[in-house]
Amino acid sequence: MSFGIEVQNASGNIVIDGQFRNHAVVASGSGTTASLGGFVLDSKVFKATLGSPIALSRSPMIWGRIGSDSAYMGLVGLEVNGSSELTGFWIGSDNAFGAGPARTVDWQITAASVAGSGAAYGLQVFDSAGDRVFDSGLEYLDIAHASSVFTLTDSGTTRTYSTLANPWFNLSALAYLRTTSPSGDDTHWECAMVARTSSTSSIVAITPYAYLAGDFFYSAIGGGSQQRQLVLAQ
User: Fold this and answer.
1) What is the DSSP letter of 57?
2) What is the pTM of this model?
3) Which pLDDT does position 217 carry in this prediction?
4) Ramachandran area for residue 222 (φ above 0: left; ψ -120 to 50: alpha; else beta)
5) Which residue stretches of the chain are H helix?
6) With 90 as the cut, is the pLDDT of residue 17 above it?
7) What distance in Å separates the CA atoms of residue 105 and residue 91, rounded to the nearest whole number?
8) Are 223 and 198 in contact (CB under 8 A)?
9) Distances from the Cα of 146 to the Cαs of 1, 32, 143, 229, in angstroms?
C-alpha cells in the first residue's frame, strides 16, 4: 500500500492493513458428530445453529479445531435464510462405514465486522470509505500458515508447516462436496476433510461422512480439478 497503516506479525503475515477489513470472531461453540438418522445412514455429522444470523455480504468463514491427531473433520453444508444470511452449518467427521468414532470439534466463525466493540480505549482503523477495518476491542484469529494452492485427491495431500500445537483450520477454504456410488449400489456422501497428523503437518483428502445402503443414485458435484488452500490460525 502507498499510504495508511500496515502491521505484520512475527511470521511476516499482515494482520492490519488500512484498506482491507479484518475478520473478527463473531460466533463460537463446539459439537460432537453423531448419526443424524433418516435417509443419511451411519453418518457422522453435527449441526450448529447460530444465535444471530450473519449476512453473507460479511464473508463469514468457518474454522474448526479437533483435539487429536489423525481425526478428520470437514464442512458438510450451510444453512442460509431468504435474506442471504448464514443461520447454521454442518460439520462431518470420518465415518469408516459407521464404525468411526464420534469427534468433538470446536468451531469459530469470523466475519468482517460492522459494529465497533465499544471499548473505552484501544485502536480503531478505518479505510478510505470510512468502513472499520480493525478494532482492538474485538477478537481476531492470528493467521499462522497459508499453504500454496493444491489439488484435492481421494488419497490425500500432506501439507507441512512450522510447529503448531493445536491450530484452527479454515474449513471454508477447503469446502467441497460430492456423492458417489463406488460399490454400485451404496451412495457415499463425501467432502474435503483435514486431519492433523503431527504438530508440523496435516493431510487433506476427500473422505466419506455418510452412506446410504441399497441406493442406486449417482451424481458428481463440483467435478474436475478442485484446488484449495490450507489456512491455519491460532
Assistant:
1) G
2) 0.85
3) 42
4) left
5) none
6) no
7) 8
8) no
9) 21, 27, 8, 7
Residue type present at position 4: G
The count of other CB atoms within 10 Å of the CB of residue 55 is 14
Which grid cell is 10?
512475527
Instruction: Please tell me the distance from the alpha carbon of residue 109 to that of residue 127, in angstroms, as a whole number.
Output: 23
Q: Is 56 helix (H, G, I), strand (E, B) or coil?
A: helix
Tell me the average pLDDT of the chain: 84
CB 174 within 8 A of CB 230: yes
CA distance 202 to 11: 19
In the DSSP assignment, the letter for residue 174 is T
Task: Retrieve residue 44's grid coordinates.
Answer: 457422522
**Cα–Cα distance list, 117 to 56, 66, 140, 141, 174 (Å):** 21, 29, 12, 16, 30
The alpha carbons of the chain give a radius of gyration, in whole angstroms, of 19
- pLDDT tens digits, one per residue of 148-190: 999 998 889 999 999 998 999 999 999 988 877 765 567 778 8
* Phi/psi of residue 57, nearest 5 degrees: -65, -15
Query: Where does residue 170 rank: exposed (0-12), middle (13-18), buried (19+ CB within 10 A)?
Result: buried
